[in-house]
Amino acid sequence: MKSFTGGCLCGEIRYQITAEAGPSRICWCRDCQKISSNGTVNVIFPSDAIKISGAPGQHEKTADSGNTVTRRFCASCGTQLFSDSSGRPGLTVVRVGTLDEPSTVKPTTNIWVASAPSWACVDPSLEQFEGPPVVAPQPKA
């Protein structure tokens, strides 16, 4: 099982993840642009695999997708760390830049590219979605 560590700029929030990395995406939605002044690079992990030390602040908002998104950040330095969506229960998005070794995760997809500014560096070699990624339906048991 892989293990990842990371934290905020000031070190008040630290985390450890014991799980394989899920999908990693560059998100160009307007909310991500507002929290980072650019697109955000994110990776998805099972929520219960993330152990956090420190107490992140949080902000809840309805996203363009219609889902309720709770973003967690360091209340001292403002570093955006995690987000949880009502559309993905049990999964947490981790900002790749907060990993101690961000090169261990490589994005495979650009999402919400229709919202990207004209100057955005959107990697044409990655899969692209104009809006949210298309999720294949799960087979029923």
TrEMBL record:
Every CENP-V/GFA domain range: 4-120
Record PROSITE patterns: CENP_V_GFA
Top-rank taxon: Bacteria
Sample GO molecular function, one term: carbon-sulfur lyase activity
InterPro entries for this protein: CENP-V/GFA (IPR006913), Mss4-like_sf (IPR011057)
The keyword Lyase appears for this protein: yes
PANTHER family (UniProt xref): CENP-V_GFA DOMAIN-CONTAINING PROTEIN-RELATED (PTHR33337:SF40), GFA DOMAIN-CONTAINING PROTEIN (PTHR33337)
Family of this protein: Belongs to the Gfa family.
Protein name, entry field: Glutathione-dependent formaldehyde-activating enzyme
